[in-house]
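Dear V.,

Thank you for sending over the compound details. I've combined the ligand you provided, zinc ion, with the protein sequence from our construct and run the structure prediction for the complex. I'm sharing the raw inputs here so there's no ambiguity about protonation or stereochemistry in the SMILES, which I know was a concern on your side last time.
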Amino acid sequence: MIFTLLGSGTSQGIPVIGCDCPTCTSTDTRDKRYRCSAFVEDANHAVIIDVGPDFRTQALNHGVKNIDAVFITHEHNDHIIGLDDLRPMIFKTMKPMSIYAEPRVLDEIKDRFPYAFIEQAYPGAPRFELLPIHPGDRVTIGEITIEAVRVHHGNLPILSYVIQDQIAYLTDTNDIPREAAERIADIPILIIDMLRKKRHHSHFSFDEALQAAASIHAGRTYFIHMSHLMGPTKEWERSLPEDIFPSYDGLSFELK
Ligand SMILES: [Zn+2]
Ligand SMILES: [Zn+2]
Ligand SMILES: [Zn+2]
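Below is the predicted structure of the protein with zinc ion bound, written out as structure tokens.
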């Protein structure tokens, strides 16, 4: 089973359109960041966490052929606006795509893609099966087990996901409640939000993410959802402790 980060950048991606800062003009391939998304596949099944505006390119680059289910962390555009591009998989299987999210987020998906839910839909419209998921729920797709965990993204309660009890995927958060922290303590791999050096109302800053990582004490920690304001990766990776790393698009892990 393989877990791959299809994207590791914040909502505008990197480079930012029209920006000529050192990050956006960096030649380090790690400084090209699509919007955050994670793909988990084994021989027979595949699931994706979040489907943002870069989904089509990410799927083509990674050679995604099938997706059995989609897990959504929250309703911000950079995490759901690519759902329409799931149509090739929906047409191939002739079944609605299973979308797991919290009830509030499922309602938001209906508002954002109303044409997918009308009875006499346009024949080319996507079809979604909306499946509510709550903190603590475990869903198994083939051999892939995904567990939902509650974190906070500023004022917004959102979901993080634990994959195969081996990877905790915590995008878009700056507050990990005690229950979640206990659930993911000492996990082999932690992937966690780290936006930039300056504080932000809904994302961990560099110092906050270091603190959170230290308290969770994962085997290895990787930062995601970086903004171009963080600077080029090679400049800040030097100040990381030895068990914390910058992530990059295409980073993958083999899972048991
Ligand atoms: Zn985001
Ligand atoms: Zn820039
Ligand atoms: Zn967000």
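A first observation: The pocket of zinc ion (ligand 1) is lined by residues 11, 36, 76, 78-79, 172, 225 (CB under 6 Å).

Warm regards,
I. M.
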